[in-house]
Structures are given as C-alpha cells and as structure tokens.
Design brief:
- Helices cover 66% and strands 0% of the residues.
- By secondary structure, it is mainly alpha-helical.
- It has two domains: 77 residues, no CATH class; 82 residues, Arc Repressor Mutant, subunit A (Orthogonal Bundle).
Length: 195
Amino acid sequence: MTPLPSPTYEEEINAFLKGVERRAFKRTVYAVRDEDAALDIVQDAMIRLTQSYADRPSNEWPMLFQRILSNATLDYFRRQKVRNAVFTNIGDLEASVDGDDSGDFDLLESLRSGETGTEGADDTAGRAEILVQIEEEVNKLPGRQREAFLLRYWEELDVAETAAAMGCSEGSVKTHCSRAVQSLAKALQSRGITL
C-alpha cells in the first residue's frame, strides 16, 4: 500500500476551521445575540488565526482560535458600548462575581442523543424541545457565566484552557461555571425539566 500524502497546511487549516465553525458561530450568537454580528466575529477570528499563526503547530490552533474568538467578541462589545454610549448609559458588559465552587456538572451530557439511532420519534421531539429550552436559558445567563459555560461544556475545554481563553484565573472559571449550572438547573426545574 502506498502511504497517503500528508495534508498541506492549507488543507489542514481548512479542515480545522470547518470543524469549529458551527460551534464557534453558535457560541458567538449566544454572546452577542445577533446572527449577522456573530458571523462577522467568527469570520474575523478565522482570518486572524490564518494570518497570524500560520507558523504555529496545528495542535495549538484550538486554544489560539478560542482566545482570538473571545477577544473578537470583547472587541465587538467594546465597539457597541462606544456606539451606544451616545444614546444610553450602559453598565459594564461583564460581571465579576465571587462564590464557592460546587464542582462541575455536564448539563448537556445527559441530553445527548444516542449514536445508535434507536431513539423513538417522541423521544427525539422531546429532546429537541428540551434543547431549545436549554438554549433559551443559556442565552439569559450573564456574559461571563455564559462564556465559561459554553467553553467548558460546548467546546469541551478543561478549566485551564477555559481560563486561558477567557483571560482569567481557573478559580474564576470554576465560579462562573458553578453559577451558570446552578442558574440553569433552577431555571429548567421551574420549567418542569429535571436532569
């Protein structure tokens, strides 16, 4: 057998970006609550990654991309704050909160559908409705809690990687995640959803 040729840089970066684009877009839509702006932010982050980090090994791309995306999102909020300051008095976009760490809980793990495809139509429809409700509640979380939650449970980064992407301490990540999970659990319970 002839060994397959190794992928070129362009093929490798394209495959990486294709693999992260959907989750990055969804995460950014949660953050900015505007699909057009989210698309611009994600595209800008992808361009920055390819232009500035072409010389980096591909195993560094996930962390670099998450950091670039977080910074691009913050830049968007800064621009919005400046634009809106003329018309309204906007408070801080991010809340810094203290609290204790009650551990990690993978809220979405309990709702992931089986890979076998044996789930019934009623179960599939019910699961889809629950996921819509979870998305609504995630959207209501404060910015930093939402960002920490999405990085940890949507992007599946560990605490250290999340802290690096958010530019904060690991303790802050744990606090934000803990509060997000508690808020989500309480909100979903009030909707009659128990996990």
